[in-house]
Amino acid sequence: MSKKTIDQLDVRGKKIFIRADFNVPQHDDGSISDDRRIRATIPTIESVLKRGGSVIVASHLGRPEGKGHEPQYSMKAVAQRLRELLAGIAANVHLSGALPSQALAEAAALKSGEVLLLENLRFEKGEKKGDAQFAAAIAPYADAYCNDAFGASHRNDASMLALPLAMKPKPCVAGFLLAKELKFLGETLENARKPFVAILGGAKVSDKLPALEHMIGKVDAIIVGGAMAYTFLLAQGIAVGASRVEKDLVEKAKGILELAKSRATKILLPVDHNCGREFKADTQKNIFAGAIEDGWMGLDIGPQSAKLFAAEIANAKTVIWNGPMGVFEMPPFDAGTLAVAHAVIQATKSGATTVAGGGDTAAALEIAGLSPGLSHVSTGGGASLEMLEGKKFESLVPIDEA
Ligand code: AMP
To answer: Which DSSP state fits 193?
Structure first.
């Protein structure tokens, strides 16, 4: 089943409420440090404006407490960035006053080709609580609802779920970004071409456990890197020195290794490790094959592991990747993550469908300029991981089927 998309909606003379995910990282001075999430929704906004509609676009930003306007969480910087990105496309981009009543008057006055960016939805406590009353107060703003906020779609905030429900029977559609995310993280993975290889990494086993368990039996191989690998190595009785482990999960990890064996899912763990004495870039370094000596911590997979993983990835027809192979923010411990990225890109070139998700994996690919080499890099961190866990999102239910 696929969702109706914004281009299938007649928008001429209509006001479209677009729920976007503009929860962007900011520098201390409030300026935006990474505008990927804003850029990702521009095609949806543009599609409405170019066809004679107007746009009311809304998002949350940061974690205000729901006590009204807090200047450090204002959407001001987002409005400015939107103005730059929509130059020549939008007649103007206006930042709203307080919700719901002031913004209601501004929405009513909106003309074709104009954009009204609502102030931070989380200034209102009803947003985070998924409050139906708050949703009912903003439902009259627009003639149709468009969800383009994949990064927030695993949450039932008022603007994600109660709002489209309150706006019915007005049309509710998916924006281009949401549709693309669902296509890759939903359909492609559900009907994955085999061999299907999952790559999981990152800091904690606990974060990735549900995804790991969901994948067993569905994928042919799971490559495990990052700090989470050390808990699994410990479960196999391999010494990991001072590496980061979750001791309380060692038994669970043993169970997972057995379950994988019984369901013919191969689990690949690193066979060598790029280690440091301390958790810093200029620490004393050493590569250990097999056991890691006391006093050393694994900060990245080693070169033999990178080769082993690359060989598995080379055979894949579908690859899903969530979590870096090491402390990629601290070169040279980014080498394993980059080697895996290049293997995934090579697989894409050979015809595999390759999808990366999770904030850190996307950041690692972006920093290295490698994102375009994959079939899809998800904008959603938590949401993309929950899709790998097989969760169905309630917020997608009100979106009309195509
Ligand atoms: P996650 O958000 O769970 O995907 O984890 C990403 C974080 O895991 C990044 O900040 C990495 O620096 C960190 N990480 C990856 N490998 C290791 C490791 N071997 N030791 C400590 N942290 C790691």
So the answer is: P
State the DSSP H helix or E strand holding residue 57, giving kind and residue range, or none if neither: strand 54-58
- Residue 370, SS3 per DSSP: coil
CA 226 to ligand 1 centroid distance, Å: 6
pTM: 0.91
Mean pLDDT of the 135-156 span: 96
Note if 37 is an active site residue: yes
Neighbours of 67 (CB within 10 A): 9
Q: Residue 239 in contact with residue 267, Cβ under 8 Å?
A: no
What values do phi and psi take at 148, rounded to 5? -125, 20
Please work out whether the CB of residue 207 comes within 6 Å of at least one atom of ligand 1: yes
Instruction: Give the model's pLDDT for residue 381.
Output: 86
Is the minimum distance from the CB of 298 to ligand 1 under 6 angstroms? Answer: yes
- Ligand 1 atom closest to the Cα of residue 225 is 16
- The answer to whether 263 touches 217, Cβ cutoff 8 Å, is yes
Dihedral of the alpha carbons of 24, 30, 31, 37, in degrees to the nearest 10 = 10
Specify the 3-state DSSP secondary structure of 305.
helix
| Nearest partner of 216 among 180, 170, 256, 182, judged by Cα | 256
273 C-alpha to ligand 1 centroid (Å): 14
Atom 1 (ligand 1) nearest CA: 202
**C-alpha–C-alpha distance, residues 267 and 46, integer Å:** 44
Q: Which structural domains are found in the chain, ordered by start?
A: 6-179 (3.40.50.1260), 192-388 (3.40.50.1260)
At 362-384, the pLDDT tens digits run: 989 988 999 999 999 998 889 99
Q: Give tens-digit pLDDT for 240-271.
A: 999 999 999 999 999 999 999 999 999 999 99
**Rounded CA separation 251/382 (Å):** 26
Among 175, 359, 373, 381, which one carries the catalytic annotation? 359
pLDDT digits (tens, 9 = 90+) for 295-308: 999 999 999 999 99
Does residue 1 surpass a pLDDT of 70?
Answer: no
